[in-house]
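Thread title: Can someone regenerate the structure for this chain?

I was given the following input by a collaborator and told the matching structure tokens would be attached. They weren't. Posting the sequence so someone can regenerate them.
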Amino acid sequence: MRKVRDYDAELKALEEKARSLKARRVEQLGALVTSTGADTLDMETLAGVLLSAVKSQNTDEKEGWRASGAAFFQRRGRKSTRKTDSNGNSGASQPGADPAPGSGAASD
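Best answer:
Regenerated them for you:
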């Protein structure tokens, strides 16, 4: 005989997972703002910059921003690999690990 599925429990679990993913995304975006130094801007300026970027139709400009962002995360990754632990091993992250919060490498 088939086991009866508890749809309410499954729905609650999915809702909790969605809340967790949303909270993680908000945390990553906050870390991105802080790590780029954008937290020094006032809220109105930062909002205006982001709104302009979202509205922009210029693909060359967007590609330039993307390349600049990718270079930023690569520089951050290199900084962490220069550190060494007590065994003399490099502090590089595990293969496949997210190099930095908000990098877009993780699927949300």
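Residues 7-36 form the longest helix (30 residues).
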